[in-house]
Task: inverse folding
């Protein structure tokens, strides 16, 4: 029988800012889904951030069981702070405004229905997250 | 006492793993942008997890509707954690149960059926929003 712990080997947990009220949140969600679905589907898992409060022990132990990457849409850094407070210290914490600044990309402006250039930005952010996944798994 | 229009805070599920999370979020955007612009507002759910003062002030001073994406009920539980009683809590799946011809698909972004269902759900919530917005306010 394969145990759950065996299945967890080589996985990184992605904790995304949900950011319903800011365009960077939408960008974070889209970029994280790209990593989960397209770029590193076999190496990543996710959990809804608010489940740390609403869920049970399994959710709170998420960052104990998996190395995690938090992706935040703004300086308030809810994903990093909540993960640290309720689950465990993330392996890496990424901030969307810093990624955009590094690449010289403008901030997105739409909450939904991202424009084509904003979807291209999601790809850039997703690739940064994927690189962070690789770095963590190399350790 | 007099009557005046209040803001109504509608908070969706933050999930990035299930279609009904996406449906909840899209329903909120429909309310904010098309159905009741200027009346319906939202906040990022994880801001409540880090006790953000502005987010707490928003949910303390206005009626709150939550739309959850799964039975874990993160949206309403995270609001109630702060001692706030929500005026209405919905499960996004019930929108589908009431309109089975519109089976939603997509997670990062809803498909056409999902977008149509969100529009219908937002229209159906408008009456409740109006009642809450017209509530008595002490001056």
Result:
């Amino acid at each position: 029988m394969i145990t759950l712990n065996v299945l967890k080997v080589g996985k990184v947990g992605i904790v995304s800012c949900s950011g319903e009220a800011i365009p960077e949140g939408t960008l974070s969600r889209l970029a994280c889904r790209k990593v989960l679905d397209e770029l590193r589907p076999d190496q990543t898992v996710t959990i809804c951030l608010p489940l740390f409060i609403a869920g049970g022990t399994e959710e709170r132990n998420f960052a104990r069981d998996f190395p995690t990457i938090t992706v935040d849409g703004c300086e308030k850094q809810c994903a990093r702070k909540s993960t640290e407070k309720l689950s465990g210290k993330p392996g890496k914490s990424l901030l969307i405004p810093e990624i955009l600044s590094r690449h010289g990309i403008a901030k997105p402006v739409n909450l939904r229905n991202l424009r084509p250039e904003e979807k291209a930005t999601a790809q850039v952010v997703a690739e940064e997250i994927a690189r962070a996944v690789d770095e963590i798994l190399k350790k | 006492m007099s009557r005046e229009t209040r803001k109504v805070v509608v908070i969706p599920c933050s999930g990035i793993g299930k279609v009904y999370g996406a449906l909840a979020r899209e329903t909120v955007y429909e309310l904010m942008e098309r159905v009741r612009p200027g009346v319906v507002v939202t906040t990022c759910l994880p801001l409540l997890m880090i006790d953000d003062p502005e987010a707490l002030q928003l949910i303390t001073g206005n009626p709150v509707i939550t739309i959850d994406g799964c039975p874990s009920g993160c949206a309403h539980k995270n609001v109630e954690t702060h001692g706030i009683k929500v005026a209405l809590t919905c499960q996004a799946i019930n929108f589908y149960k009431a309109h089975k011809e519109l089976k939603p698909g997509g997670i990062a972004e809803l498909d056409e059926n999902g977008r149509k269902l969100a529009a219908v759900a937002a229209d159906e919530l408008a009456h409740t929003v109006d009642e809450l917005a017209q509530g008595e306010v002490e001056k």
